[in-house]
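Here is a tokenized protein:
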Amino acid sequence: MPFGHADAAIELRSGHPLILEAEPGAGKSTTLIQLTASLFAESDDCVAVIFFLPEFGQMRRDFIDDIANRAAFHGITADTLSTIAQAGRLILLCDGWNELSAEHRDWVRACLARFQRENHGCGIMVATRALSPPPIQGPVRLLMRPPSRAQQLAILFETVGGAAEELLNRARRTPGLRDLLRTPLYVAVLGEIGSGGTLPETKEQAIRRFIDRREQRSEQRIILRAQLQDRHLEYLRAAAYRLTISGAGVISQSDLRNEVSQVSAQLRQAGQITGLPEQQATIDALVAHHVLVERPAESGRPFYSFQHQQFQEWFASSHVEERMVAASASPSRENAQVLAEILNNLDWTEPILFAVERLSRSTAEGAQSVGQAICRAITIDPMLGAAMIRRASPNTWDQIAEPVVRFAKDWHKTAESHRAFRF
């Protein structure tokens, strides 16, 4: 049944825990901001605070201390906040559960449990992707609905104005784009790309066009060339890879500087740059002129993340693509094992799907590499294999249809026939 902002506000004011589940790019963060506004508009008898959990997990403070250290709460002591919480008037809106590493997830889960135990009347909402480990026990689970046509038009109007309806109608007629329009992030990306030329047909194409358009702006292109000698993609891919293998949504300043140093050394050794750029200057350029974001911390040492987790996953997909090509071109045990480890890691799901979309549409050899990766995936996680098939090009399916159908038929004869049917 439909469940709106007003309904969620009532549940939270009553001290009930909620989990907001949605697919990547569906607008979980925006929804939390809108919900905060709804809570304040209805009444001023509670305090609603948004937490970005990847950053919160790095800081290692409990919720009350974290709030007390924020500039917006200057002059309000932790004791006062504790009194508000014990009265059931503090509401926690937690974003980015799926962006936590396993270590930080355990710590944050313990913090949430302790807060619930000590403040029974306080509402908590945790936003996450589906299939992530549950953050709290016994909550109502809310699933975000795709945006309506009116909401899609409103998103597009912000960037293309009166051309929004024409662009939306054209996108709806474009094969492959209808599914993308179910996700607010990709509707916004479509608006940034504009209506000129051929529209993207996959998520990967949409983000690639968005990144290309940003880099082609004259002021961005000049600075990226002058400061980073056009090697910005290598730095961003390294940051995305480090974030993905750690299972985290943010990276510390010191760790990112180390990544920049390693990439710079590799580029100089390959003859792509002449001198080693200063690490912080490189980071500052990526923040000012690309999709990296600096998140200030009270310690004075900032954390960094991508503007959206899908951007991080898109850059990380380059590593997956390289592993797929290597496993196909040089089918050694080592290459097969490296690819299998990626396919068996939930944190790599979105980068895998981006790589599938891009590589399967690149060349005949690329489609073959993806097909072989899918055949490996169905032996590890059949549902991941099914998702890869849906995102791959028709040429890839032509190559693997026979073994995949045979696998599905054999699987259907087992005790897991219900899962085989879903596959």
